[in-house]
Amino acid sequence: MRFVTFGLGIGLLVSYCTPAQARVYLANEVLTMRGFETLRGKRVGLLTNPSGVDGRGRSVIDILHKSPKVNLVALFGAEHGIDGRIPAGKEFPNSTHRRTGLPIYSLYGPGPVRKPTPAMLRKIDCLVYDIQDTGARSYTFISTMGLCMEECGKTGVEFVVLDRPNPLGGQRVEGLILNPRFKSLVGQWKIPYVYGMTAGELAYMISGENWIGHRPKISIIKMKGWKRSMTWKSTGLKWVPTSPNIPHGDSPMHYVSTGVLGELGAGSGLSIGIGEGMPFECVVSTWMNTDGMARYLNSRRLRGVHFEPISFKSRRVKNRTYSGVRIRFTNRSIAPLMAINYHIVDAVKAVAKRDLFATRTKSGRSFNMFDKVNGTDMIRRDLAAGRSGAQIVKSWAKDEARFRQQRAKYLLYN
Hints:
It is a single chain. By secondary structure, the chain is an alpha/beta fold. It has two domains: 2-88 and 98-241, Uncharacterised protein PF07075, DUF1343 (Rossmann fold, 3-Layer(aba) Sandwich); 251-376, Aspartate Aminotransferase, domain 1 (Alpha-Beta Complex), CATH 3.90.1150.140. Helix content is 30%, strand content 15%. The chain contains 14 helices and twelve strands. It has helices at 27-33, 60-66, 118-121, 141-155, 199-208, 232-235, 251-265, 290-299, 338-351, 356-363, 368-374, 378-384, 389-394, 397-407; strands at residues 2-5, 10-14, 43-48, 71-77, 95-96, 103-106, 126-130, 158-162, 218-221, 282-285, 305-313, 321-329. A nine-stranded mixed beta sheet has the order 1-2-9-8-7-3-4-6-5, sandwiched between helices. Helix 4 packs across helix 5 and helix 7 crosses helix 9 (338-351). It is globular, with a radius of gyration of 22 Å. 49% of the residues are buried. Mean pLDDT is 94; it is low at 1-7 and 13-21.
């Protein structure tokens, strides 16, 4: 292993893996192997949640707090909080960590607070980021990461990324590049919805592309043994829920496959399984033809995915029975994800004779969050013009190719 510093002030811990080293070693494990060299002599802040564990399931909070070589002085919590249990979109205040007595600064607090204040950063020399992400642009952790980088740049605080796998793999790129007019916490960077990069690689790109006004010194601690072809299941690592509705290792794939559809279908009686024990894993309603939906979607011959008829009694609504399809991945590495949202829009129109876009328009409900999640109003305009989901998916090809070329120099793993 050796440490390489780049011209952008980015230090990369480069670890070489031999064929005998089959296990994926997370960056927090590599940091420990090196005796916490990057953090020695510094007052350390840590941005994490329960997903910030090593390969044996030990919390990075405990690892850093118990090490005599590390001076951990503060914790920071992104959306869902330091314990990962706070529902999506619910703000929370600063508090004290029960186990360690350390202050917890909320980066999803009232005000609203969405990035560190100068007062939060005043007593630290470096801010360490160790959170498992989903690989989707709309999942807010990567927005928080970059906003922290910018504030660290303003105050002279070093930013350290303890890298983790992208659970969707490092090859998949899907969707349109974000239009800056739709910038928000669910879409902060000019990347496609599925961007196929680790947090460390993305931090490198955010700095290198000048997407933030103040660039800090960044140290990216690499993993050992991770390959771009790996989805979460192939890493052999245990999944720790990153938030209440992302409970297992396939959840990020399901999140990408139906999450956008959920924003479009809200108010139409469509459910994507949230609150029903299978979040983002199904698309159901009281008016859906189960077998017809499954036949239609399977006839599209989407690689690596199968649509299974499903019917069940609602856990949330008394005397309600849902019918529809459950999404099963037969080959995680090749299945299209973002496209599934829009093929289901076609299926609902063809089988149920319902236009989800028209229904939402008639209801007077806002498309604000739908546009923010998509990072553009182009998809809404395409739906308004009557374009099919299949046509919408094809329209992404140029952006996907352009981004693959743009990101190439920031990739840290073969």
